[in-house]
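Q: Joint fold for the lines below.
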Amino acid sequence: MTTKLTNAQIAWRAAQDIEDGAYVNLGIGFPEMVARYQPPGRQAIFHTENGILNFGKAPPEGKEDWDLINAGKKAVTLNPGASFFHHADSFAMVRGGHLDVAILGAYEVAETGDLANWSTGPKGVPAVGGAMDLVHGAKRVAVITDHVTKDGRPKLVRACSLPLTGVGCVTRVYTSLAVIDIVAQRFVVREKLAAISLDELQGLTGAGLVVEGTIADLVVPEL
Amino acid sequence: MTTKLTNAQIAWRAAQDIEDGAYVNLGIGFPEMVARYQPPGRQAIFHTENGILNFGKAPPEGKEDWDLINAGKKAVTLNPGASFFHHADSFAMVRGGHLDVAILGAYEVAETGDLANWSTGPKGVPAVGGAMDLVHGAKRVAVITDHVTKDGRPKLVRACSLPLTGVGCVTRVYTSLAVIDIVAQRFVVREKLAAISLDELQGLTGAGLVVEGTIADLVVPEL
Amino acid sequence: MDKTVAGLPEAVAGIEDGMVVMIGGFGGAGAPIELIHALIDRFRATGSPKNLTVINNNAGNGRIGIAAMIDEGMVAKMVCSFPRSSDPRAFTEKYLAGAIELELVPQGTLAERIRAGGAGIPAFYTPTTYGTDLAKGKPVAEFEGRNYVQERWLKADVALIKAELADPHGNLTYRKAARNFSPLMAMAARTTIVQAAKIVPAGEIEPEHVVTPGIFVDRVVEVRDAAQEEALIRAGVEYA
Amino acid sequence: MDKTVAGLPEAVAGIEDGMVVMIGGFGGAGAPIELIHALIDRFRATGSPKNLTVINNNAGNGRIGIAAMIDEGMVAKMVCSFPRSSDPRAFTEKYLAGAIELELVPQGTLAERIRAGGAGIPAFYTPTTYGTDLAKGKPVAEFEGRNYVQERWLKADVALIKAELADPHGNLTYRKAARNFSPLMAMAARTTIVQAAKIVPAGEIEPEHVVTPGIFVDRVVEVRDAAQEEALIRAGVEYA
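A: Joint structure:
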C-alpha cells in the first residue's frame, strides 16, 4: 500500500470545499474529475471558458452534440438554468472576479503562490489556452496535484523553475498527501495524511512548511 | 424672401448623400429630420445609441411604447430586421467604425474639422450624452447647421471658441447656404445657393473658403 | 440555487451609506422604479442609505425614481452622461446650489467603463474626448498615428436592474430598449439586485436567449405590473 | 438591404494574398468548414490567397478546415491560444520546420483583443500574463496596487463565421457553444462573411434574440446541412 491519495481522492477532497451555489471553473483534464464528487445537497454551477454556464454530465456515447462541448472539447449536456455567451463575456466572468473557485492542475506551485502549469519548456509547440486567464479573477484559485513529480521531485517549491502561468495567484493546494494554504507567501499545512509525519511531508516539499494551530488529519473515502 | 434654406431643406440635402444600405446615426433634434427625406428606392438603417438598429417612424400618438425609444427619448417603431443590444455593443458600433454616416448639429465647426456642439460654456448644468462618442468612428461625420448664428455671427470658423466635442472629426458641412467639405484643414465649397455670390458666402464665413474646380448650385425642393 | 427574495425590502437590504450604486435605465426605459422607491422608503424610515454615488445615464426626471432620491438628499454624487430630462429640477437645483457632485462622462465611455469594471479591465484607451475639456488630467497615448485618452473602469457596490424575465439562477432577459446599461451594470457591481416582471422556473428561458447570465446576479424580486418611469412622468406622478 | 450571396465562391471572393483572416470556432463547434474549403478550392485553382495570417483559437485539426489550409501552404502565420487538437499534425510539422509563424495569445486575451478591435479600443490592460514569458516586451502598469499588461486590439481584413439563422440584413444567431469567438470576430473584420444553416426573411429573427446585429456582417451564404468539424474528424474525412 502506498501512503498517498489517488487522483480521485484528491478530487474528492477539493470538491468538499466547494460551497452550495458556487460558480466553479475546473481546468481541463484531472481537475474535471472534481465535478464527480459534489457533496450531496450542494449544487455548484460549472463554467466553461468556451461559453456555457451550468453545463452537466457527459451525454451517453453516440448521443454527443459536438456544438455542446466544454473547454476540453468533450461533449457535455445542459442543466436547467444554463446559458450560452461569447468568449469575451465568458472571460469577463473569469477576469472580472465573478467565479468563486477555479481548480487547476500544476507542474509546480511556489510558496509565493506562483503557478507553472502551461509549459514544460521551449521544446515542441507551445500552447496556453485559458490557463493564464483562469489564474486571475476567481475569488479562490486552488490547485490539485500529486505532491511530487513521477520521479519524486517536489512540485511545491520555493520558486518555479518552469515558465509561469501566473504570479501569486494560488491560495490553496490539494495534494496527494496534504491540504496546504498559501498565506503571506508561505505554505501553511492545514491537513495531512495521518500516516505521514510532518518531517516526512517536509522532506517531499521544496519549500518550508508552516504550521498554524493544529494540523487536521486528511481523511477521504475509498474511491 | 430670405435667401437661405429652411432646416427641412438642409436636412433634405444631407439625406441625398446617404447611400442605399448605409448605417446612419442622426443626432438628437434637428438631425433627426434627415430621416424624413430618404430618397425613394434607398433604404438607410438607422442606429440609436441606446441600443436599437433599424428603428422606424414614430408611432401614432397614444400608441407609444416607452421601452421602445431613441436616444432623444422619443417613441419609435421597429422595421423588419431590427435588433436590440446593450450600450457597450451600441457604442462599439459607433467607436469601432461600423457606422457609415453620423449627422450632427453644431454650434461651431472649424476648418480643421473640430466640432463644438455640446456646451455653450461653463454656465448651468453640463450634459454631453453620446456626442463625443459619435464624432469618432463613423466613416463620415457630417454637420447640418444654419450658416450663421441667430445674431449673424459665422458658425464656420478658423478655430472653435466654445468647448470642443471632437478634434478634426467633421468631413462635410451642410449649411443653409452651401455644402462645404473639409479637406486638409480647409473649407472647400462644393455647392452654394445660386442667389448668393462666393464673396457674400465668404463674408458670412469665419475662415477662408477654397474652391476646387467648379461650385455646383445648391438646389433643393420646396418643403 | 435560488436567488429570489420575497419582497422589495429584502431586495434592497444591505445598501449602506456611502455606497456606489449603479441604476439601470436610459430615460424611462429600464428604470427600476420599484427598487428605487423601496430604497427611498428605507431612507425615510431609518435615515439610511445616504451619501450615495449614483451611476446612471441621466440624473433623474420629475419627482420619482432617481430624482426623488436626490430630492430626499440621499445622493452625494451623480456619475452620468446627460443630467437633463423633461424635468431635471431635482438635480439642477442641488447642482447649482453646490449640494451634489457631478462626474460627467460621455455616454459610450460610461458604458465601456462599466463593462471594463465587470470584465476586470482596469483601463482602456478610447478616441472619445481626445482634445476636449473632458479629457483634462487623463493620460493620452498615440496608437497607429491617432490619439487616444486612457479611461478607468467603473465598479459599484450595488446595481439596481429592471429585467423582463428572470429565473432562480438570476438569468435575465430585458424588454426592448430597456436593456441599455443593465447587462453591463449587472457585471460591474458586487451585489446585483434585479426586479423582474416575471420569475420563471430554471430552464424556461432558452439558454440561447439569456442576455445576462445568472453569475452576474445576486438577488431577484418579482414586480408584476411594474411602473414605467416615462409613463409616470407623463401622468405627473410624484413619490412623496 | 440584401447581404445574401448565391454561393460559396461568391462568398469568399476578394480574399487576397497576405490578408488577416479571422475564423470562428472553438474546436469543431462553429468552424465554418464550407467557407474554408471554398477558399481552399480557389487557392488550388488560382494559387491565391496565400501568405494569410489566420486568427482562431486553435490551429487546425486532422486534414480538413484550417489544417487543410495549412497543409496547402496558404497560411504564413497563426494567431491562436492553443495550437493543439486531437490531430495537430498539419500545424506541428510546419511549425517545427520553421515554415509557419505562431503568435501565442491566452484565450481570454485573444477574445478581448478581438472585441477591442471591433469596439475601437486600441489598447487595454489585463492581469493575464503579468510576470510570465508571454508578457515580454509589453508595457505594464499598476492600477490600485495590482500589476497589469497592456494588450493591443486585433483586427482582420476578413472574418469567416458559421451561424445558425441569418436574415438578409445579416442579423445572426448561433447554435449552442458554436457561438464562441464568432460574434467578436464579426465585429473586428473589415469584411465579415457568414455561412448560415438557414436564411430567413427580415423580421423572422426576434429583435431580442439577435446575437450579432447585421451592421457587423457583409455577406451571408446559406449552407444547409453544413458539416460539423468534429464529426468529420471522427469520421476520418480528409479534404484532399
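Q: Anything notable?
A: Chain B has a mean pLDDT of 96. The longest strand of chain B covers residues 78-84.
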